[in-house]
## 1
Amino acid sequence: EEGDASGILNAPMPAADPRVDPLIHRKYDVRHMVRGKQSNKLGLQGELELRADPKAPLFFWPHRLVSPQKGVELMLAAIPFIMTTSPTAQFAIVANGQVDHVNACRRLMSAFPGRVAYRAFSRALSQLGKAGSDFILCPSLYEPCGIPQVEGPRYGTLPSVRQTGGLADTVTPLSPSKGNGFLFREYQVAGLVEAIREALDFYEQPLRPRARILQRVMLESSQQFNIARSVDQYIELYQEILGEKVV
């Protein structure tokens, strides 16, 4: 019946934390976020043969390359638009999936050498991508919950997402004092392009105020999305269910 369902969001594993993650090039905390991310970005660029530039805005795709759920088609169509309007933006795609999508990623890599990279999924590259990129792309058609958009902010990596399902539950519009990412509503290439452009506008802000916002996001994400909080929510839900049964 209506109102009888409850939802509990996924939580990152404890190792998805830049302070302890064994798979990133340099561990870092909130205080050392700027240097830590720059070091990991250079490491990621080296691994993927992207142009070495710690100041380049770097977008990361961590999802399976499958249709229709993850919005692969939007990402593939948006990249050429961004390449023509942002001379330094880079895209890193680390994923397995449908052959046609993999081939499309490889064509983009050939068309934009040093700015677009594709590699098959590996856990190490995926974790390095979260630490070394600036933004995570999540343009899903539908998404029950999702993990990358709650892991990324723990690393100071902001999600650009479609406002649907668990993405809408976990990402709110970014401002200096609140929010953690960039959202678009309609499942269209133009929507994703606009969200990416908003991310690029944020990236063009001076480093000091931008870093303060990222530090806030990192702290809030660690407090909001963690295993301990999910466990508490499950316990509260079971207690409520058992209490109703006793009555």
## 2
Amino acid sequence: MQNKKAICWFRQDLRLHDNEALSQAISSADIVYPVYVFDTRTMGDHGKYGFRKTGKYRAKFLIESIVDLKKSLSAKGLDLIIRIGQPEEVIYELANELKTSWVFCNRERTTEELYVQDQLEQNLWTIGQEVRYSRGKMLFYTADLPFPVNHTPDTFTTFRKEVERFTSIRKVINCDFDKLLPHVSNIEIGEVPQLSDFNYEDDFEPYLPGGETAGLTRLQSYLWDTDHIAAYKTTRNGSFGMDYSSKFSAYLAHGCLSPKQIYWELQRYEEERTKNDSTYWMVFELMWRDYFRLIGKKYEEKIFLKGGIKETEREDLTDNMNMFQIWAEGRTGYPFVDASMIQLNETGFMSNRGRQNVASFLINDMHVNWQIGAEYFESLLIDYDPCSNWGNWIYIAGVGNDPRENRYFNTVLQSKKYDSNGDFIKAWCPGLKSLPPSVVHYPSAQSDDELLKYDVILGRDFPKPIIKSEQLT
């Protein structure tokens, strides 16, 4: 009897735990070939506004995640086949050479990923093979939702109430590696590439280590080792330090952590330690991730268009690249904005509170097209996820799922509230280190003589404000 063979194509699901595509591949076949393809378009192409689609920070996180995945698979007796190219062609060629019956993968939802899926499916049909899709990134299964995806409510609150009332969370999936047959293949395994292979500079220390092992370690630390989760709701809007928030987002975006794994660890934590608003709020944030993903599926290309899902372009927003560049480089003269942008540029990370503020400032104070900011974030963020990133930008721009009109963040007041002592600002804007908390959030409100008392000169130690706004004073 001929052995059944399958490819498991890893995408944004770089883990062994709770990996439905991997589980189904193992259940269906006697021999499984795990494959990861570094897509040359994702790694090398540039977007509409000239930013590289994947910047060096996310590229390093990805490469570290693949190294970790390869090691974990090796411990289970499997070799991770690694290629650089276009997945729809590479996977097809491997399937043809290996004489497999299926390609298993977790389904993606946005335009570029859908194109790759569809092309691969068409290529495989020509050799009598098929793609079998699973879900890999969501807390909820779409089949369990109380509405079809195209009827996803247009406000998060309605969505949350419905799913909390009617939808349960499925258990974490485990893979039975022991059922696989040992095999020898002449196929070239391939090496994990270096940053230099994609023309990136490896001149930085990563903000977070990539990979499933690091993600599970972070989950263990944030919940069990430190109990930081018990205060999450009150600390999550902070900006300074590593533990004010969970730092799960990059691991979720790359699929190094399963949202269901987090959910069930939270349930265990609530049973064994404490249950409060903070533990609930982590689930609340996971629901937001699902919601943006469903909105991305419902509205497809619209989440990337200037008019958003409301199909209403704001006439006050222009493609002013000079103003954008000042914002991107952290030279606006508003400390909380500049500190957040400098952190992003130097680490690939920014707090959620920072993201809301810098986006509001670019859109509502500088009147620059939100799409440019969204594309810039796509390039730099280590935790970039298409639906979450673009969904949040259209939300702030007023062309997305926000039931309020003119959502505006006063960055000066926000800075005083969420960085009261100015620790975050001073960490990234060292020219302001000598300023007291009463001055550091908006130094340009002081006279030159007053600032000289602290040996601070605007234009030398920190930029003068690019704009003046009564809303921001």
## 3
Amino acid sequence: AGSDTALAPIDVGPGEQVNMNLMADDPTFRDLIRNLSITVLATEPGLGINTVNQNDLMKGAGEGLLSEQDAVAALRSDLGYAQSRIEQANARNGAAKTSFEIARTTLLASDPYDTATRLQEAQIQLESLYAATVRTSRLSILRFL
């Protein structure tokens, strides 16, 4: 069903856009399809076209197809350029994502040795606190005297 209006430019990165203004109603595609259709119809036995007219139709369609080669190559080149820009932006975005993930992991990750050392220190302090609590609970005036 298509549309006769071109797509808006597509953002592929910061400050970078790709224009996708290639549409099926492009004159190059229309000429290409017309010449291919003439080629197919010229050899259709049900149409009853004589050999001389078939040859004339095929010659004209062939010349049209040959003349469209440069235009089709230009369209393919434009499409390939847009694809390469999208791929480059995709690679840059992927590299940036990986770099941000590494930075995030570095910021949030803890050093296992440092963590184990601090845990052991906390355990020793807790045991010392329990030992002091036990000693103070056994104190009485009678034992003191």
